[in-house]
Amino acid sequence: MDNKTISNIKSLGIDMIDQAGSGHPGIVLGAAPLIYTVYARHMNINTVDPTWICRDRFVLSAGHGSAMLYATLYLAGFNISLDDLKNFRRVGYKTPGHPEFGHTPGVDMTTGPLGQGIASAVGMAIGEKILENKFKLSDGKPLINYNVYALVGDGDLMEGVSYEACSLAGTLNLDNLIVLYDSNNISLDGDTSNTFTENVIERFNAMGWHTEKVLNGTNVEDIDKAINRSKKSGKPSLIEVKTIIGNGSVNAGKNIVHGKCLSKEDIRSVKRGLDIKDEPFYVDVNNMNKFRNQIVERSARKYELWARNYREFMNNSSEEVIEVFNSFFNPKKIDIINTDFNLDKGIKEATRVTNGKIMTTISKNIHNFIGGSADLSSSTNTYLKDMQDIKDNHYFGKNIWFGVREHSMGSILNGLALSGFKPFGSTFLTFSDYMKPAIRLSALMNLPVNYIFTHDSINIGPDGPTHQPIEQLAMLRSTPNLMVFRPADANELIGCWDVMLNSSGPNALVLSRQDVRTLPSTVPEYVKYGAYPVRKERKQLHGIIIATGTEVFTSLLIAEQLYNEIGLDLRVISMPCQELFLMQQERFKNSLIPGGIKTIVVEAGSSFGWYRFVINEKYLMTIDKFGISGTKGEVENYCNFTFEQIKERIRKLF
Amino acid sequence: MDNKTISNIKSLGIDMIDQAGSGHPGIVLGAAPLIYTVYARHMNINTVDPTWICRDRFVLSAGHGSAMLYATLYLAGFNISLDDLKNFRRVGYKTPGHPEFGHTPGVDMTTGPLGQGIASAVGMAIGEKILENKFKLSDGKPLINYNVYALVGDGDLMEGVSYEACSLAGTLNLDNLIVLYDSNNISLDGDTSNTFTENVIERFNAMGWHTEKVLNGTNVEDIDKAINRSKKSGKPSLIEVKTIIGNGSVNAGKNIVHGKCLSKEDIRSVKRGLDIKDEPFYVDVNNMNKFRNQIVERSARKYELWARNYREFMNNSSEEVIEVFNSFFNPKKIDIINTDFNLDKGIKEATRVTNGKIMTTISKNIHNFIGGSADLSSSTNTYLKDMQDIKDNHYFGKNIWFGVREHSMGSILNGLALSGFKPFGSTFLTFSDYMKPAIRLSALMNLPVNYIFTHDSINIGPDGPTHQPIEQLAMLRSTPNLMVFRPADANELIGCWDVMLNSSGPNALVLSRQDVRTLPSTVPEYVKYGAYPVRKERKQLHGIIIATGTEVFTSLLIAEQLYNEIGLDLRVISMPCQELFLMQQERFKNSLIPGGIKTIVVEAGSSFGWYRFVINEKYLMTIDKFGISGTKGEVENYCNFTFEQIKERIRKLF
């Protein structure tokens, strides 16, 4: 059966690519024995319950192998039709060009951008460890217990993000993670001898992993044994499997077979070599049924055990424990606005500090709220007090130490969000640059990941331009599906968290390093509208200031002074979330910011994305050049952004 | 002398931090013996000729150690005054919070964002190898010949970008690169046992490096010997030096000493321990002079030899060779517009393909034009035909194989640009995300790096949303100092290269995967204005379409059809570079896009950054959601971006 199924995965895969006119046959012909061995002999899954909590996960980090994955999932019995395979890479079918989470049953993650899959698999493995330790049956055994498999290519392992995540996986000793490395010495442009000559096995040994090498990548037994040894190794495992890219094609072993369709003749010849009928989309039904039975037989045992255990757990656990469980897997609306955070009313402190207090309270109430920082928690204030750390052999905590690894922090958060968590990760706003590929995947998968970015403007001062964000808010706001919050004070912060924790998608919370006063006119409940007035005009509306974050207080003060000094009557609008505001109905938007009224924007960052609110650039009090190292005052002056400068620029507009 | 100078580096460093009220004393007290050993015993530099081509380079990858670096440079005799040290982190002095290239003599690179320094040092080492092999004296010896030193901390080595670059350094066997690893088991948040337990030495061995371990980080002789052995190793070298963070402080060995000022009492006690006068900014002048003499004596030999060799080279080399040399170090205006690229006039092909032809010609004429791709040259078409590859022990070529390492490709390009090159690197536009931190540093240092991003829109089709850029143009355009070019066709491509190669700053060239016709009305010479009309109104100006890239042809066709069908008389403006257009005089801008005329923007990407040209969002034919996997037509339809949809949307505006 092994070879027949492998052949069928291959033949379907190359037929799909041929039909679509594009795709990646090299990995299909090279790595089919790997994916087959995992599904036939190891994956515990239920094709009629594809989101089963306790299923094993499979991440095709080399996402360009989507045809191979879909062919395997089809043969395995997931709800994918032959018609889906025939319409590979077409709108309206379950078989997009790269695997997409939520689009195809059996696909555990969106992949394609290399390195992301393996890095998020590390996040899934951390998630499993926590869940395994959190929910126990009456006999002390874990309710939840699964493995995470990833299939990677040379490209994945060259990417820095995979190194970061795998180094952390070694430190945390994630023995539930098994990585199969499709090692064929070829990448898109050519032989890896040009680019990638390191000893990968030794590198992973140095990172504390268990390693295996399978010399013949067509030998299912050898792959199987390596997986079995890995499961028992007590460490995260890398199995290097030597394969031949495009095996069986006339271009086997060459880079041109990576991403170009095979010729019709080559397809015929490959199929001949596979001893499979030369008929497009031929399915060996008898053999497929055997493959399905093998999966069902193994998985059914685990699924039935799970069902029993789940009933036992639900019957015997305390209400409290069940509530915790449900917060992961059946979340209810979370009320943050009416939560008492014990904040002083008159506080004047950085929003990063207030936020630390808020998060500490949140973490006590919300059980799937976990996270950490890329080695900046002392500055971002996101360490959850009273909560333990997650460490090797100690997965009870809520604080993850990511190390100086912003990028993989983002990818790991994605993996956690895919495992039932509402995770957070923090660093300085300027270093959000390092995380963009991971943030984009949060947005593409629409995962409830909370990015916390502090030190949000030039006002950090002396650290200088490398640490002063300018364009980062624009980068984040221009990313589809991502909500970007920049609260003015403690009140808005509470409102932000209320929206964020009830959202199914990703959020970025942007916080100040410098102190701000809690304002009398800010309102938590209004954050959900994205914008609202914090100062109404007294008599007649002369103009409007839109401000965010720390600039709200500045703008209020300027408005107050200009009213007293020259009678200029300004409305000040706080806009903690531009995206939410733009989603509101036209009537609301027009009533808040009516056309024909001079409108000014004040934000200590790029003008990008703000022109829509103003007539011309004179109305933008923003910063479009890099900052400078100096005192807060010196830097503001250099950026034409002191209180007096802004006030004067506004005065001149009227 | 050793200890006295080390003590003085430390005392000045902590005085600077104390005076500024911020900074990082931990590394100053821990790593001073490392930087001292490099400068006292190894660096060949000339403090009165700080940009000497043949100097050794020093990259403080752990850029937060700036106080230590400035104190060392001051003591070494660079043109930095005691007043500069006293005004650390202030505007107007040579001592910004993090080292800034071009701002401080002796600073070879801007650092601060971790990992970037070491990755760019790899670029510098590649650059040296090429220069060393390119310019020969009559006896066959190299004219240029220097080493690259980098000082890194745990944070640098945790960053994925450092792994990527160091893996490539192993493959290319860059034996001119010596990395000192300040290994103190502490990062900002705490002990590295929480985050970073891998065996770094073994990891670097696996990557083909020579490694050394110095157990006592205060022992200058041991560090010196390790550097000497490294120089002879024939491989890139990592020297792990065990140090104590904040050595001598009451908080020695603790993470709190990383980034917080010492108390006054602690400063006194540290100085007592160092046996140095307790006087702010005390300089042991006698000892400083000895330190300077030691540097001068060693370096003078090399500098004089260089001067002799340089004269010999200039006298004995052919005009052609001297021209090549000058193109690196005394560049002249480059005329691309009048270069014959042998392009067919009537071609219809993707701009990525035309660009490949143009680059091939450019590479023959421009000697410091080198680069490569992050394993996508087969798709980005940037492989320089007729040019050799750069490989281990073979540094004559112009093609660098970066591997699937977008991020370090960017950082390496920065290192090459710092070494006299006009480098390029290519990948898909969507993967520019991976490179943002490196792009930002190109922009901060204003380096002539050319980023080439192909597959520039949803029109790539079946690969789906992970590969379809949406927000990337906004990300790039919002980055200060970066010029973003999106040419409509071959003519504009030539104009883009003319601007790019004569620019001193970074550029991003954004190219299509799909075919475009060379248009009769596009003009290479006009690219430098950023925008110009490609279709003038026939009789009366009814409206304006601004378009870029492949959308210029679409817009022209729509304008033509609407004129014929309903007499709508539109001006079509091609805007290959928004940044350049915005730099033009108001009069020019207003004549091209007069106020009060309905103006439409057509670009297959985010609306971010385009509102400045339109009245409201109805006039934006842009895409603000993620794409989808499908045929070109299906994807365009999903994004409301087919030819007919755009035409109809425009028609309705009038």
Notes on the structure:
2 copies of one chain form a homodimer. With 654 residues, chain A is an alpha/beta fold. Chain A contains 23 helices and 20 strands. In chain A, α5 crosses α15 (406-417) and α7 (160-172) packs across α15. Chain A starts with a helix and ends with a helix. Chains A and B meet through α6, α7, α8, α14 and α16 of A and α6, α7, α8, α14 and α16 of B.
List keywords for this structure.
five-stranded parallel sheet, homodimer, alpha/beta, 654 residues
Low-pLDDT parts of chain A are none
> Tally of extended strands of chain A?
20
Main β-sheet, spatial strand arrangement of chain A: 10-9-11-12-14-13
Helical/strand content category of chain A: alpha/beta
- SS summary, helix count of chain A: 23
Helix content of chain A: 40-55%
**End-to-end span of chain A in angstroms?**
81 Å
Shape, per Cα inertia axes of chain A: elongated
Portion in strands of chain A: 5-15%
- The quaternary state of the protein chains shown equals homodimer
Radius of gyration of chain A: 27 Å
Q: Which pair of chains forms the biggest interface, and how many residues does each contribute?
A: A-B, 114 and 114 residues
Mean pLDDT of chain A: 97
Largest sheet of chain A: 6 strands, parallel
